[in-house]
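A favour between colleagues. Tell me how you read the following sequence-structure pair.

===
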Amino acid sequence: MEIKRLIVGALSTNCYLVISGGEVGVVDPGDEADKILEEVKKTGAELKYIINTHCHFDHTLANKELKQKTGAEILIHETEKDFINFEADRFLKEGDEIKIGKDVLKVIRTPGHTAGSISLLGQDFVLVGDLLFKDGHGRTDLPGGSQAEIENSLKKLAKLAKPETIIYPGHGESFKYTKPNF
């Protein structure tokens, strides 16, 4: 599986193209749909899914335009359904698998930044949205946020991630995961 990062929107959100076997999933298309579509076109792969790690606008703003131009399915966790201003094609839950080409992303519910935040677990990487950054964890002071839940989600991630797992955050650079001392 190939992962390509694009930085989009006013809040410099990481949008990821997850590419495998002639298919691509776009994770967190926060803005600049034309820029995203141009990069998808360069891959030569078909856009199959638009996946949101959570409901915040800086991770979802290009959903509607991408859907309109490609017909790709919009996926988001079921807990976010009351907070979105777009129509989702499928609501995700813990343990769901998203097949892209020959590879699979496993849906891990990691609330705390929002009530329905998810992470996407691949073979040697995790796309974590705004759960974790190189220098700390995501905000918990916005609606649906919870410090206790984000701490539990970080503990859950610590059990799932191997020491050399690559973390792809919603903002900033990717990094190798190191186990925290809880």
About this structure: The mean pLDDT is 96. The longest helix spans residues 147-160. The chain is about 20% helix and 35% strand. The two ends are 32 Å apart (CA to CA).
